[in-house]
Structure formats: C-alpha cells, structure tokens
Design goal:
With 188 residues, this protein is mainly beta. The chain contains 2 helices and 14 strands, in the order E-E-E-E-E-E-E-E-E-E-H-E-E-E-E-H.
Length: 188
Amino acid sequence: TPASNLPAEAAMNKFSRFMPYLMVTLHLENGTEFKCYMDTGSPSSILPKFVEAQLGKRMGKHRIRTLDGSIEKENIYAAPKIYLGGAELVTGNRIGVWTNSEGILGMDCLRHYCIQLDFQTGKIRFLQSGDTNSAGWGKAFALTNLRYAHIRQNGFFRLNDSSLLIDTGDPFDGMMSPKLLKSAVQVQ
C-alpha cells in the first residue's frame, strides 16, 4: 500500500568511483542521524551498529548473504520509527542491525513509495503514485516483485520477456547469468 505521508525532496549524494551508491541521511525519533544506502536489491532494511544500544531488547539473530557472497550476521529488533526529514517512513515490524557504519533502506520500506531519481538535478523525489499529472516524471517502471525490485522488459537480448532486477545497492552496471550471456553471444 502506498505511504500517505511523503518525505520532502532530498539531495542525492555525489557519486564517485569510491562512493557509487545512492545514499540518504535518516534519523531516529530521538534525532540520531545515520547514512543509509537506498538498496532496491535488499528485501529488508538494516540499521548501522552504533544505533543498536537505542533499540531495546534484541529479538533474535539472522544471517544474510551480501552481494559479494559473504555471510553477515545481524541482530533483529522491533523496528523503531525512522524518518527522512520530517516524514516517518513506512517499514516492516522488525529491523536488523549489522556491523557497518551505514544502514540499508531496503524494499520493506521502498515498496511503499513512488520515487523519482533525478540525476540531472541531483534530487530524490517522493511522488503520489496516483497523481494524474505524471507527464514530467520521466519513464516509469512498474515493479513486478516487491521483495526485490524487478521490472519486465521485452526484447532484452532478443528474449520476448525478461525479468530484470533493479539494484540501486549494486555499483556494477549490470550482471547476468552465464547461461543468458552464452545464449546472447551465440546469437550475435
């Protein structure tokens, strides 16, 4: 379900080869600020280690696999109120904490928002998804999977219909399965 309280426009971080990730500054109800990767390739949000002492009793532990294949451990807590500017973000009931100094804003939160990434002006905008005046939004991509951000694409490598993962937490331009690459190279 779409969120009703939308955050104001946020500045996009400056990208470089050392920081190729989309990041925003969030804060807890008590004002504690932290940086978060906006990661459409992560099904859940994760908070940075330094906020853990403010979260109360730990509910459990969980293991997660990162993009590079390594296994990270996260502690699980009841999700606190998290804000972007003055707007409380919609998240899941539980949230993880890991050892990094930055958090992850994952699809448990992002799926509730219509987000425009304006790279020319360096702005992130949260839009009303039912707005009828969408002409200036740019190309819209509907997600087909809300756990991970997938879109459907016709004609990708001459396939009739492909499911593409849109992963804003991955610094690479793209990846594909070896089977699809081999097929595409043989056709070419």
